[in-house]
Amino acid sequence: MSPQPISPLKNFFAGGFGGVCLVFAGHPLDTIKVRLQTQPKPRPGESALYRGTLDCFKKTLAKEGVLGLYKGMAAPIIGVTPMFAVCFFGFGLGKKLQQKTPDDVLTYPQLFAAGMLSGVFTTAIMAPGERIKCLLQIQAASGQVKYAGPMDCVKQLYRENGVRGIYKGTALTLMRGTDIISSEHHHLSRRERETLKPARKHRLSVPSVLFAGGMAGIFNWAVAIPPDVLKSRFQTAPEGKYPNGFRDVLRELIREEGIGSLYKGFTAVMLRAFPANAACFLGFELAMKFLNWMAPNL
């Protein structure tokens, strides 16, 4: 059974569906993560707003109900389809550009390079979505409701600082990247295929897809948490607080809370990483299978 030629167009549509699956599966823990990352340092004699992941989860449920865990989800849902569509399109294009024939097996560095291309492609869509999502996620916890929803948030940000206000944190979003997720999933999936019988070596079972996607998320977030913490702090800070950008955020965090502050929300991130990315790649694989059946020559 010959390998299916890489189709950037199919990657585009399947990636969009995979992104929707990721948001639905991972948004509750993403809300917890952002709230832990952005909570202020307690004053002397005061206790922290949240003692940890479980405490934040309990307080959110008690104060806001289940819907509180889905605060700000409209922004990533609106942006996630084109974002992941472009991500997987870029990854598919990056792989195809390095192949001479569809049978060529790419090396891990080549997969990583293809993943980096996908990360560059998605940043233009991801950065404003992340900015809006974070602002909506923290406002309910602070008790000060400034934005009525995603569109109101966009309008206010644009009115206050123009396009620059909407794209605040773009460099950190790019640093956090999406390249490791895509390349690691492909690498793990390929290793999984190599262990299967020849007759089945181009078909992955659902558990195999879930495992490869979940582990890809774990590997990615293991290195992405520090820039993600800086991004969350920078994107939710009042305008003008950090005139030198994320360098000021980094200095403040290390000076006031130590190097460990760069891993705030670690538990929530890791609890979210496996199921969210597993759901993403399962959705991608199922959508790709459907597209290959509907249009095998596309």
UniProtKB/TrEMBL annotation:
Similarity comment: family membership: Belongs to the mitochondrial carrier (TC 2.A.29) family.
Gene Ontology annotations for the cellular component aspect, listed alphabetically: mitochondrial membrane
Compartments in which it is found: Mitochondrion membrane
Protein name: Solute carrier family 25 member 20
Keyword GTP-binding (UniProt): no
Single GO term (MF): O-acyl-L-carnitine transmembrane transporter activity
TM region positions: 12-29, 68-91, 111-129
Any one Gene Ontology BP term: mitochondrial transport
Provenance organism: Cyprinus carpio carpio
Keyword Mitochondrion: yes
Entries under PANTHER family matching the protein: MITOCHONDRIAL BASIC AMINO ACIDS TRANSPORTER-RELATED, MITOCHONDRIAL CARNITINE_ACYLCARNITINE CARRIER PROTEIN
Membrane topology recorded in Swiss-Prot or TrEMBL: Multi-pass membrane protein
